Amino acid sequence: MCIVYLIAFLFSLTSEQCSSKLMEDSSQSFMERMHTGKTSFIYFGNHVNPTIKLFMEQLEMSADALQDYGISVVKVNCSKDAIANYCTGEKLMTKAYLFRGSEVLRSFDIDTVFDVNAIVSHVLFSVLFNEVRYVHTPAELLRVESAAKQNSDIVVGHIPVLGLPEHRALMEAAFVYGTKYQFVQTSGTLVLKHMGVVDLSSSQARLWFLHCKGVSRRSDPCPSTPMRKPLNTINIHTFLQLMEAPLVTESVLDPSEVDVVHLHLGVPVLYLFSQPQTQHLDRATAQTLGLQLRGEVGLVLIHRDSPNVKTSLKYNAAYRLPQEDVKYFTLNSAEGVVKLFKEELLQEQKLENEEEDEEHWSDLDILDDEVSESVYRDRDLMLDLESVIELTSDTFQITVTQDDITVVLFYFKWDAVCMAFIQSYIEVADALEGMNGVKLAAVNCGEWTDICSDQNVTSFPTVLIYRPMAAAQLYRGMLGTKSLHRFILLSLGSSPYILSSSAEVMSFMEGDLYSKHMYLTPVRVLGLFSSTHDMGVTSFEEAARLLRGESILGLFAHKEAEQWVEGLSVNLPALLVSRGPGVPYEVYSLPSSSPTDLVSLIKQVELDRFPELTVENLPWYLELGKPLLLLFIGKEDSTESTKALAEIKQPLSSGQLDSFLPCWIHLGRTPVGRSILEKYLGFVPPLPVLVMSQLKTGEEVFLFPPERPLMAKNILQWIHDVENGQEQPAGLIPDGKWGPPVPFFDFLAIMDQEAPTYAVQRAPKMKTGGREDHRENKHVTPNQKQTPHPSSNPQAPRQHSEL
């Protein structure tokens, strides 16, 4: 049935019509029509003026088009047949009506249905009202996705102006394919931004295909593919056929003998030749290219070991443009073939539509927002690696075994995430240029696979830090300039700093030594031992090595160490924590533990009691498992914000909020906080605003009554009312998980393997003298004397993008 309707429509575009399909009803035939139950679009008029004449011409044209969809277009001459309720009053001649039997589905001003495209699009949209979902916000689209997962795929159309040819094309496609796909229409910029579009000022109509049917888990997002051609019926039909075609077709024939659906749809085809010994890697490359070129280029993987393949061994790839013969070439990198197709196809695209947005060649449809923005921004930027040493098999070992600290980035040039991150890496290299003791290098694993294999690098991008006579250290921070720069600067210092006197301890905790790195982190953690012969010293030194670049640690193994815990009911060994000059020290007992246990302990004692939440530290605080008492503020120095922060600190200092995690988000420094607040409540109320979430009883979010003063006693009373069920929730936390859209772009897979609550990791194993460095994850509970901190993970979960 879908093909019948499509052929009928295409025929109507190219055929001369012998007679008009516009009907004229009398009173009797109108009444008979009302009893048929069929759909009719009817216009009532009594005379023709120039404006109405133009409308009648369009109405006649729409009759030809709508007939193919089983919809009759009718006119009634009220001068001859006065139909009650329709041939009288002010609405006469200015309204048209859509009937299903005798029921009026909708009425239209003739200014709205001004031409054949507007008539067809509005009529079909009304007829398909229950089938085509109209969404205004990303939240509404996500609900449609949730319902469609594992059931059907989704076609999303963004139509800036209703009634234009693009709107008609979408509605005709929905009528034809509506039983196969869930169609969604939107016109606002919120959904446009959600889909990764950068230029929100463009008036271009757009279409996406959301691959929801094949998601393995309902918690996974639906990968999306944009249609990169103008939105018309032919292109939509071709695009949907391409979405049904295999991502990669495997063949044992020469390219000229391979028959794939793409050739019949007028779409270019790329052929890659696979060798038996590299078959797994070739398939992965083909899958990656298939995702990058999906919807525009077909991809065929040809097995070279087949006797039917006669192509010369000097070629490893070929392509075929529509109506042309196969052309062979040698593929040096996947990036090169993508560039080739971009140049070929974009020339044709520009001829068809010079204003087509070039962003469709980026990976916006399959990467998260921050990476997408970087990829789009730098899509045509030539990499300037002048400040980065490019390593080869001949230079790698010599470089990383020198006296300097060597930071090495392992990457693929054709991987979008790597190319987004490498810009940040170059910025760090430029910032550190001329600094003694550190150099930045890079290895292109597409060219030097032996190096990456020897270093057990399996996830990309990966950054390893090499020091003389030490195992390589994996960088686990955020993939951005600020975090990597901070990590490297912290790595330049000793870990731990060996202190030999109480004067040096004072300098480390809040004096000159403290000030040296104060701009990097305000927290200092000191290990106190009575002697260098203490059994725990070795474990502490190893823990400090593991935390190098993340924390600033000191070691004071001396008989004077006892003075620093005197009167605090804590015996040595112990941890002493400083948060800056003038802030009381915190002291914790230090049980005999393994290095990884100490890493866990140190990371948790560094946590603040009343933290400012950021993208980087949020996972650590969520690991505490406490309900959040979360204050959203705007300008930190405003009177309202300062007062709100002070009011929460009062019950915090007295221990009345120990069962909660009081925290705050500055929307200026952490813009994502506004999205969180909107997700919590459905709107953004005036700031400051206090909410409570992550309760053990459910996913409810409670809002501190805005009409009540934000004072300590009112906050405590409100918390009491919430706990006793006397407050109604203001919203719910959306149920969903944040994961990679497609497995190959799982750049979160290199988050810390010690944080299984947030991600199942596959961190590369570091070789150390023939041994592999396997890290454990054990539970340690600190015995705190001043500030209680529940247990946490030994390594903070890694985030994928800079805030």
UniProtKB/TrEMBL annotation:
Keywords: Signal. It comes from the Eukaryota. Residues 769-779 have a biased composition (Basic and acidic residues). It holds the Pfam family TXNDC16_N. Residues 780-803 have a biased composition (Polar residues). PANTHER family: THIOREDOXIN DOMAIN-CONTAINING PROTEIN 16 (PTHR22699). Residues 21-124 form the TXNDC16 N-terminal domain. Residues 388-488 form the Thioredoxin domain. The keyword Signal applies. This is Thioredoxin domain containing 16.
